[in-house]
Amino acid sequence: MRRRILLSGAAAVTGFAGIAGYHLRAYYQDPVVPDAPAGEQRLLRLPSAARGRTVDVYTAVPAGYGSGHGLPVCLILHGGTKRPEDFADLGFGRFLTDAVRRGAPPFVLVGAEGDRLAWRPSGGDDPQQMVRQEMPVWCGQLGYDRTRLAAWGWSMGGYGALLLAEAYPGFVKAVAAFSPAVSPYDDVTGSAGLLRGTPIGLWCGKQDGLVDNVRNLERRLPEKKAAGEYGDGRHNFAFWSRMMPGAFDFIAGALRT
Predict the structure, then answer these.
(1) Could you give the maximum distance between any two Cα atoms of the chain, in Å?
(2) Which CATH code for domain 22-255?
(3) Which of 38, 90, 192, 198 could bridge across to 220 with cysteines, CB 3.0–4.6 Å?
(4) CB-based contacts of 164: which residues, under 8 Å, 6+ apart?
(5) How far apart are CA 176 and CA 201, in angstroms?
(6) Measuring CA to CA, which residue among 230, 200, 195, 227 is closest to residue 212?
(7) Where are the domains of the chain?
(8) Stretch (H or E) spanning 102
(9) Where are the beta strands (DSSP E) in the chain?
(10) pTM for the model
(11) Reduced to 3 states, what is the DSSP secondary structure of residue 253?
(12) What is the CB neighbour count within 10 angstroms for residue 214?
């Protein structure tokens, strides 16, 4: 049964770091994508009753695994700016193949359009219910293993992935959150105790304006975080791209049969 998370009215915080040091501007201004081929990537248009519209849905399978039949799934919850149509250009398929080539058990990526609602309901538009009820059905129709799901998100999507795990304990086997847009008084931080039993990975740049809030969330977790780090970087894919190999290893391990 769903555990309802009451909305306190505190919006998910989005923040950006101030002026970073010269070494950050010089070396970490561009994303880093591995030299690995992408496997099958698709951008589908599927009807969502929960959202009352047709949405873009991105899928990626590691190279060498065909259509991904029988593979477990990492659900992607995007942040405030990027959308499924951007995921291929961000190199998600190449990161996925790279993880498998480094020895991670294979899995697939599936991410749908959630707009800027922080993955919470707004009137008749409920992206959280789309993820909870409809995306597993789509995964099954595509031949993926809908019984093994993890969630990964960044910024607003990191907030949404954690909120999903709190609202539906046991729905996902793990959450990887990059710079989740949390605040000390929001629903995710206040209900962190509901994450007991769900492995949580937290990554955030030391020069990210959200880093203190993320560290505060980590202190509120009922169990020690299972993965993650605080490295030099800001609130962007220049930092997050350097964290993706570790996050994908974590996700793959959580989805292992």
Answers:
(1) 50
(2) 3.40.50.1820
(3) 192
(4) 77, 119, 128, 131, 132, 151, 171, 172, 175
(5) 5
(6) 230
(7) 22-255
(8) none
(9) 38-48, 53-62, 73-77, 108-112, 149-154, 175-178, 200-205, 227-231
(10) 0.89
(11) helix
(12) 23
CB atoms within 10 A of CB 135: 24
Helix, strand or coil for residue 193? helix
The answer for 61, left when phi > 0, alpha when psi is -120 to 50, beta otherwise, is beta
User: Measuring CA to CA, how many Å separate 20 from each of 16, 23, 107, 208, 232?
Assistant: 11, 8, 36, 9, 9
CA distance 105 to 132: 24
Place of tokens 């749908």: 112
Structure tokens at 129: 């219910």
Per-residue tokens: 105: 């058990």
For residues 31 and 11, give the distance between their C-alpha atoms in angstroms, rounded to a whole number.
28
Strands of 73-77's sheet in order across: 38-48, 53-62, 108-112, 73-77, 149-154, 175-178, 200-205, 227-231
Closest CA to 238 of 21, 15, 92, 32: 32
- What is the pLDDT at residue 155? 98
